[in-house]
Every structure is written in C-alpha cells, then in structure tokens.
Amino acid sequence: LKMSWFWFYLPLHLLMAACLCHSIKAPTTSSQQSFKTDLFNFYHSLILADGKETTVHLLKDIPRRYYFVLEEGRALAPFTITVTPCDVPIEWSILLHKASASFLGEAARGDHGTQEVSKSQKASSMVSTIFNYKGNSVETYMGMSSHSALYMLEFLSTERDTHITVYLTTDTTSGHLYPELPMDPRIDVIGIGHTTVTLTWKHSPSVLQHRENIQYCLLLNEKHNYKSLCAAETAIRSSGMKLPPTLALSLSPYLLEPQQVMILSNSELSIINRVSSGEVRQICMGTKNTYTVPNLSPNTQYYFDVFVVNLLTNASAAYTGTFARTLEEPEPKVTELKDGKVIQVILDGKKQKFYSLQYQARHKKIQFTFQLCRGQVRVHITKNGKTVVSENISGLRYFSLKGRLLDTYLVQLRSTEETNSSVKVQVSPHFHKPLFPLLPESLKIKSFSKLRTCNSVTIAWLGTQEESKYCVYKKKIEEDQVWMELQSADRCSGPESRHKSEKVLCKYFYDINLQRAVTTETIKGLDAGTLYLFDVYLFGPSGIPVRYHSKVVKTRKRC
C-alpha cells in the first residue's frame, strides 16, 4: 500500500479558509466543533513517512503529532508502528479518526452544501484512542488499517527534552527493517572469571536468513542496561563524548575522540570509551552468538546488552540485557609442594604472571617432574635465591638437583602464550619410584594411508622396554572442528574424561629391543568418508596416564 498525501500539499491557509467557510454556513454542535479542531490539528501535524525510520525531537511537556492515511482500494490492510525512546520514558498514543478520505477531500475543496457537510461530519466524527504506552522500552503496535480511517500519533516527554525514532510500514511482504529477535531474547551468563565473562544468546532468525547483512554488537558498561541502541548512544554522548554515527560500527574508518580506543582483531571491532562513570565498551563480533568478554576488572559489576544490527539500514533490535560481577582477584600466594604429591597449575596467558611454588628439601637429592598439559610454559627454579633452572618445557621434563638438607626451592611458572596453559608438577626424592611412566622416543601416532578402507583405519605407535598398558579411543569430528580439537587437547587428562562409547580397546605390550617396540592396531566398524580423532593413553606403574599426540584420520568415501 502507498500513502496518500493529496491534501498535504494543499496550502494550509486554503484548507483553514475552507473549514471556516463551512463553519459559517451552518452552526456546529460541540461534537462537530471538536472534530473540526482535531482536523485542524491533523493538518498542523507532520506526516509520517511510510517505510522509513523517522527521528522525532521532543521538547519537554510539548506534544508532537504525526498522522497518516491510506489510499482507498482495500478494505483492510495490516500496518505496524515501532517507537524507540532514545533517553527518558515518554508517553505516546495512536488515535483513530473514522473519517472517510472522501470527506477530507471535500472539506478541503469546500464544494458541498451545508446539509451534506453536516451529515458527513456527523457520520465521520468518531474519534477513539486505540493504543497508549508510557515508558522507555521499544514498543511495536500491529493493526489493521481501514481506507476510511485517519490515524494520529501523539508523543509527549514530561521529564526533559529528548528524541525518539518512529518507524511505520504498511508493506509486510518485503521483510523487516528491524532484525528479528528469537522467541527467547535473554542473554545467558555461562562463565565468570576474575577478568572475563562469557555470554551466549539464541540466534536471531534474521542472522539465519541474511547472514551477510546482519551482525551482533555487544555493549558493556558499569552503570545499567540499555533498552535500545539509540539509548546507549544518547547516554554516551551526554557524557560529553562524540560517537561514530551508530554503534552498528561498519568497518569504514572514522576519527576517534581522545577518550576512545579502537581495537580490530580476529574480525572483531571494539571501541572503548572512557567516561566518568567507568568504561563503556562496544564490540561487534559478526554472527557469533557466544562471546567471552576479556580484560575486565576483578570484583566489578558489569551490565551487558546485545544488539542485532542490520548493516544495510543501521536498524537494530535489543536482546534483554543482563549483568554479572567478576570474581575477586585472589591475593598472590606461594603454594607449598609436598614430597610425591602431584599438583596441576593453570596459568593465565594474558596476564603473563608467574605462579609460585615452594619446596623445602628433606633430602640432598631431589627430582622435579613437569608434565605439560596445554600451551607453552616457562619454568624458573631457584635454590636459596640462586637460579638453577630456567627454560621452556614441552611434554614430560625431569630436573634432578643436588643440595643440602632444608634448602629452599622456589618454582615459578608462567605461560609463554596469550592463551591459558596448564602443567602438572611433582617433586620427589624417590628416583627409584617414578610417578610417570617411562616414555618412548616419540609420542606421535602414525596412520597408514594405503591401509585405509571405507570402514577401517590402521594406526601405529611406539612403546618402551617396560611393559605398560595402552588404551585407544576414537571420536567423530567435523572438518571445522579439527583445529580446535588439536589445540585445546589436554595432554594430562586421562580416559576418565572420555565417553565410554569412545573406547576402542586396551592392550599391554613391550619389547626389550627398542627398534621393535612398536605396535599397530586396525580399528574397524567406522563410517565411510568420516573424520575420526584417535588418542592413545599410556599407563605406567603408578596409574598416571600420558596421552600421545592426537591423530586425525578420514576413512575412504568409496571402496
């Protein structure tokens, strides 16, 4: 449907004259006078554009009116009106005037007699409020429009001057200006750390339909949640800061204010605003619906809002905001190591801080054992304040040290990568009772391409001169999961972390001749053309496992 603005272009003074002529030709009742006043108000209001978002500026306690009329041609047609307050709560309502468009045209032309006009006025003077709202939430009214109806929208701000956006459309077939929200628009907090919060939310249907034109933007601050993107923009501007045209953040360059910092990494655009009430951060992450917010302050409450943004129109829809408090940062402390006890340490790669362990020797000879579980770790050991070891470790590493009774050893560990790392540590004077199993020269798993079939794979790995238990596990994975599976693998975790259905077999073997200490295994019952992740776990006398490097093999598609 198209909007009919015929009478809008008539000079207002002619319209007023026409109305005055009618008032002179015949006396009017109070209802007719009321209708004439309303009609006069309509023509002194602004016309609301169809299919376009309109920004409306409101002065305190002064109502602002807009109206629209539809062309004749269809008895009923759907329409929607969406109003977005950009600051304080407002009042707005929709008034329905059941006046025919033909009468409005006649009133403007003044070409009917008194009796006809009087009849038309009586028949057309019904006015009713069909919708009324007060608040600062985004509200949408959906209705059916009649060709003989005239609608007026009235907006009022009673707190202070403000602005809003209004969107009217009668075209319900060509898609939505605003991205759609899912049935459950809540943001879930699924992880809280000292400096991070992990959020997830359900996908917008618009993302699934128009992925290339839609993206999610996250806004976080320390004050409160925002119910719309323009409300967030207004709040930041009111702090005396200049913002980009929209938080939709297209990747086109723009100048930042001194209080702003822009960070672009891994296809994510972040803008950090320093304001008096704390930090306001905006992050656009494409179409990912899970995000870990980094670099937060410990023991601080943050408010999180997610907006789904149409990059073509800059229109947006807001998820229901949430909040979370980061954990208190623990006081730095030194952990005491005890003879024979294994502890696992997780190291924060972003902070690059040392984790300290202390051990007081009860024997002259001791041995430190380090098993790298994930990432890369640097080890620094001092004895009575003097450095005795300082190097990066990988796999399983032993350090045998000599000293005196009651010597104090300080072990400092840190991650050498930006991601978190993990390592197991043990100190013991018992060299003859190693906690970890004897390891082969290599922990790699080999697969034989020529022996692959549609439903089987043959793998091999090295053993040792010591009889040990080996367990094989398999797992189906997708192509896009390979890198993540290999990078995130915890080399210290044992089979207890695996599902029972993933277990293939366990076997014992060894060979005095290391050249022959190798075993092969054919795993059958696999699916054709499928990727599998294979793991081998080695168990020593103590029962602590060592995990070989994972191997990814794909079965043949055709045989």
Distance between the termini: 60 Å
> How large is the count of helical segments?
7
Q: Please name the CATH topology of the largest domain.
A: Immunoglobulin-like
Rough outline:
elongated
Number of E-type strands: 36
Return the CATH class of the largest domain.
Answer: Mainly Beta
Q: Rg, please? A: 36 Å
Helix content class: 10-25%
Q: What is the CATH architecture descriptor of the largest domain?
A: Sandwich
Q: Summarize model confidence as the mean pLDDT.
A: 79
Strand residue percentage: 35-45%
Described by strand count, sense and barrel closure, the largest sheet is:
7 strands, antiparallel
Helical/strand content category: mainly beta
CATH-wise, what's the superfamily of the largest domain? Immunoglobulins
Domain module tally: 4
Unreliable residue runs: 1-28, 100-117, 242-267
Structure, explained:
It is built from 7 helices and 36 strands. Strands 12, 13, 14, 15, 17, 18 and 19 form a 7-stranded antiparallel beta sheet that branches. Strands 1-3-8-5-6 form a 5-stranded mixed beta sheet, covered by helices on one side. The protein has a 5-stranded mixed beta sheet with strand order 20-22-27-24-25, with no helix packed on it. Strand 17 and strand 18 form a beta hairpin. Pfam families: NDNF (PF10179), NDNF_C (PF19433), NDNF_N (PF24354). It is found in: Secreted. GO terms for molecular function: heparin binding.
